[in-house]
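Box 3.1 A note on notation
Throughout this textbook, protein chains are presented in two layers. The first layer is the amino acid sequence; the second is a token string describing backbone geometry. Keep the layers aligned when reading.
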Amino acid sequence: MARIAKPEALKKGDTIAIVAPGSSPKLKYLKLGVKRLRQSGFNVYVHPQCFLKKGYLAGDDRTRANALIEMFVDDSIKAVFCARGGNGSIRLLRFLDLDLIKTNPKIFVGYSDITVLLHAFSNGGFVTFHGPMPAVNFSCGNYKFSLDNLLNVIMTTEPIGKLKNPERLGPIKKYRPGKVEGIITGGNISLLNNLVGTGFLTSFKNKIVFLEDIHEEPYRLDGYLSHLFLATDISQAAGFVIGQLVDCNPTRRTRPSLRLDEIIDEYFGSLRVPVITNVACGHGTQNLTIPVGVKGYIDAGKKIFGITEKAVR
């Protein structure tokens, strides 16, 4: 299997660019996130595109796509962080010069709506990072866990090993037994579902797949997972990491519903591969950074999820 490129490690004094491929961030949250990155020893350039508004989008599609391209071809920029997720990143795929971006690999960080770009860039391109975003995770009171974990991953040129949950979340939980190694991929369930049939979704076969989501009732998650298992090779994954499923319980008391845990059990409970749950990836305020495209491992019996390959060079 051909290996993908690794971006250059971030160093103190480097310049981080912030873009908004989907929705525009709230200014007060963005300012606080930028402040905390600067306090950590980095220069920060906020692309003016972040302040544009077109409905729920941070400007029109071409403007958002061009902002991304500009930051990847600018040699002074060493990392590109997404201000937030929101909606609309998938609309950029028609306008991005992916060959140009992939020949200029850089640290690229985001999650949620950014899932589509993590896959588009890592699919035959370079390692990307499912991790915290400045206007979301660095603007809250308990930001330090997310920021410290991100910097450890993108500044360390050795495998980072075992990932540890924040204390408030508690330990990782075993769902299905077993141990496995494999390339890591995954992301937001609903956005992975949106990528089916586009050609941008990476294969799940023999890989460790992490999944997360927010504000999706059980019947919607049921539909997304059904589609993924029917339309992709996700059933051939080597193992699964179930991250945070925030506010995904039934909300309508008058409507019969399956519980969230029942949905998880129906899709993952009978699999003959390792499955772990309660991993701090996704929409929790404290967010682990997971590199997409490197080797990792699951030891469900010991409740461990780890990274066995360096993510940056």
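DSSP finds eight helices and 14 strands in the chain. The mean pLDDT is 96.
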